[in-house]
Amino acid sequence: MSTLKVDAIRHNSATSDSLVLSNDGSVAIGTCTAKLTSIGGGGLSNRNIIINGAMTVAQRGTSSTGDNYKTVDRFAQWENTVDEACTQAQADVSSGTTPYTLGFRKSYKITNGNQTSGAQAGSRIFTSYTVEAQDIANSGWNYTNPNSFITLSFWVKSSVAGNFYGYLYSFDGTNQAYSYETGSLSANTWTKVTKKIPGNSNLQFDNNVNQGMYIVIGVYWGTNFTDAGNTMNQWAAWNGSSRMPVNATNWYTTNDATFEYTGVQLEVGPVATPFEHRSFGEELYRCQRYFISINNVDDKFFANGTAYGSSQAYFVVPLPTTMRALPTLVSYSGSGSVYRFLTAGNSQYAASLQSWNNGDKTTLTFGGQASGLSSGNGVLLGVHSSATGNTNSSVAASAEL
Prior knowledge:
Helix content is 3%, strand content 43%. It has helices at residues 133-137, 280-287, and strands at residues 4-10, 19-21, 26-29, 32-39, 42-43, 63-64, 75-80, 87-92, 106-111, 124-132, 149-158, 162-170, 176-185, 191-198, 211-221, 235-237, 258-268, 291-295, 301-308, 312-318, 328-332, 339-343, 347-355, 363-369, 378-383, 394-398.
């Protein structure tokens, strides 16, 4: 049973009335008022373990046909054995709908390619979120106790009606998995999915910065990964050939089918509380623990460095937050785009960048190559505005899980 803990209760009347719980944690029973401090084992603030669950931050871009982390921060899309790549995107939630009326303006959206050869045994298209191990270990969830729970909830919409599957996976100790289903979704209709997940004596989450829990939400898995005998809603030893029950193929074989979700929340306790909306600035700051876009504006200089010899320069860029691990350079270059150095006398040189970091988790250190430099002189790094396709050029620091 869930419990409510309150403080500063003031009883002004002996009359009996209904209990009213507001989103800010206030409780009212007639003229009796109180302040809610926790529900189901977790506080009302900072209860969502998921970062960017409302899909508001997309530092890398808003659309991509590549897999891995490409658009919405902290969420990734993966595919294997497909005829045409899918598109992942940060999409707009249509006004007038629920969840729009609950404050959700963005979603994470997958658009299927044209899979002309049909579903293959090794075909799969799925999305994932990886939770840092210490965020589970320190969450307050007694994860080895089957009577202690976490709750996963999210809003989901598919253009093709059907039942979709996902799973949770633990990285530490003996790997465990927990499969679940969305339930039957009507086409083009937003549905709230809530899953109460118990602890298990075989679970282990180390108190470190590494991968702790893998959360998969949809979309399609071929028969190499599914099993008609898979038992959902319980933890079991990891079996890569039995991640979930057998999937229907109708979404996969529908050209340009879409699958999108938003409002992803993982919290301690057996009930799903209202989604914890955070400001864009706070969500961005949390995302920057894993990925920081340093520059994505063309024709701007964004880093100071020093020439070392006639062809090398080194740059040290302070970062706005301490990253999860020692960051590495991520250099995105659009077709035909060129990085450039600006040196004393306003001389400019085409340049290439090198990933190299002997700094710490608060700075990004990297190198660059160009001709005509003077050792010891200052160098500015930027992107040529005249280069074709340079709108995709950027430099970023990554410590992604």
